[in-house]
Write a structure and sequence with these properties.
about 10% strand, about 180 residues, two-stranded antiparallel sheet, 2 helices, 5 strands, 3-stranded antiparallel sheet, alpha+beta
């Protein structure tokens, strides 16, 4: 009988540990996916045009699906490879709207009201997430990143100090 109780206690402890590990993995995936969306939306809003020519007015992002293939360019331009679901809820991310007339979608966030395990030690461009009470407070808004990243603003730790654009012009994925 004692052995059964001990095994039950050990199984309960292992289950709790496993649940914590899985939540940490989902948090890391949320940070990765949210950052992918944020960076893709930033590339969408980046002024385009040829050097020496006037830049066209900004175009609002109306649908996240446009990040998969830009409908406003004659060539195939992809800002995201696919639309990612929120790893915490398994559902679509909630979109963050800016000024509808000039910006449209400016970011995404989780809809989860659960408290995060991670409370600090975020990368510089996500420092605002420290001590937030719920995942829905983690907003991946490209305008916030621009304000928080120092001049030169590329992602640190990548070869050549690039910002993760894989050498493509304009930072988008281009297909022939």
């Amino acid at each position: 009988m004692v052995a059964v109780v001990i095994i039950g206690i050990m199984a309960g402890a292992a289950s709790q540990s496993w649940r914590t590990i899985m939540q940490r993995d989902r948090e890391e995936e949320l940070l990765f996916r949210g950052t992918q969306y944020r960076d893709a939306i930033a590339k969408w809003h980046k002024p385009r045009g040829t050097p020496g020519q006037p830049k066209p007015p900004p175009r609002p992002l109306r649908d996240l699906k446009d990040l998969l293939q830009d409908p406003n360019t004659p060539e195939t331009v992809r800002y995201l490879r696919r639309l990612y679901p929120d790893p915490i809820t398994g559902k679509d991310f909630e979109v963050i709207m800016g000024d509808a007339s000039s910006q449209g979608i400016v970011g995404v966030k989780s809809t989860s009201q659960d408290p995060p395990l991670k409370r600090g030690n975020f990368p510089d461009d996500l420092k605002a997430f420290a001590d937030k009470d719920k995942y829905s407070d983690w907003t991946f808004d490209y305008r916030l990143r621009a304000a928080s990243v120092p001049a030169g603003g590329g992602v640190t730790g990548l070869p050549g100090g690039t910002s993760g654009t894989s050498g493509t012009s304009g930072g988008a994925f281009r297909s022939p």
